[in-house]
Amino acid sequence: METALIILTDGLVYASWLFLISAGLTLIYGVLRILNLAHGSLYALGAYAAASVVLVYFDRGLWPLGSYLALLGAALVVGAVAGPLIERGLLRWIYGRDPVYQLLATYALFLILEDLMKLVWGVNPYYAYKPYGLLGIVQLGGIPYPGYSFLLLGVALLAGGSLYLFIHSTRIGRLVVAMIHDPEISAAMGVNVPRVSLLTFTLGAVLAALGGAFTAPMISVVPGLSVEVIVLAFAVVVIGGLGSLEGSAAGALLVGLVRSLMVHRIPALELFAIYLVMAMVLLLRPHGLFGMEEVRRV
């Protein structure tokens, strides 16, 4: 029983981390129809910015619990600055182009951002661990867990709930849904497509940076952080279905639980199990668990 509880808890915490990253990726694809290979770099930018802010924050002896607001602020700033710059500066020139051009352009952006982060932060690791220990240890069924893990779970639930309400309960959200279904008809009906595209990409960038910011206290922030993240994020959105936020949540939960089970039972198969699940889902449902078949325009 205790082992099952550990597996479930670890799986939920890992799934919350995956959801924060993959939700932005699938939202961007759903509206803009672009597979953004630089999405992992936005995650890494959020992690680096958050680590830098937290280190300065504690050096000045400020209120410790306020560091969580500092993490949130760093993520919002990264998303609000990097999102519009990338969307206006690059992506708007490649909308509707062949997917190969889009992949090459976003891959080039990924390489540029990787080198830019090395120029700004160097190649040495950043350790912003202090927020991780502030919440102490939580006893769950007699098993000690760091309280910060549940904060990450809460951030994912809050972000997912807010995103759901934004999409389904606001006028702008309904415009986003309309563009997901048919951007050409939406434009013909008077929707300001460039503005909605900018808002969508910025929101996706904020989600990626949010995942990086709240992960920073749990890891050492080092160059190359974005590579593993983007691979896992693609696995999640492919399993859930490209463009489906519900699929992103389901894919993150499935991957989180499978990965946790393998870590505790057969550690050597941790990554293999994730991609085995992806292969099996694609064999049974080529468009993912919640994905819909798209009509290809020629």
TrEMBL record:
Localisation: Cell membrane
Superkingdom in the source lineage: Bacteria
InterPro entries, A to Z: ABC_transp_permease (IPR001851), BCAA_transport_permease (IPR052157)
Primary localisation category: membrane
Ranges that cross the membrane: 12-35, 42-59, 65-86, 107-127, 147-167, 198-219, 225-245, 266-284
Annotated GO MF terms: transmembrane transporter activity
Record CDD domains: TM_PBP1_LivH_like
Keyword annotations: Amino-acid transport, Cell membrane, Membrane, Transmembrane, Transmembrane helix, Transport
GO biological processes: amino acid transport
Membrane-related topology note: Multi-pass membrane protein
Cellular component GO terms held in the UniProt record: plasma membrane
Signal peptide location: none
Membership in a protein family: Belongs to the binding-protein-dependent transport system permease family. LivHM subfamily.
Descriptive protein name: Branched-chain amino acid transport system permease protein
Organism of this sequence: Thermoflexus hugenholtzii JAD2
Phylogenetic classification of the source organism: Bacteria, Bacillati, Chloroflexota, Thermoflexia, Thermoflexales
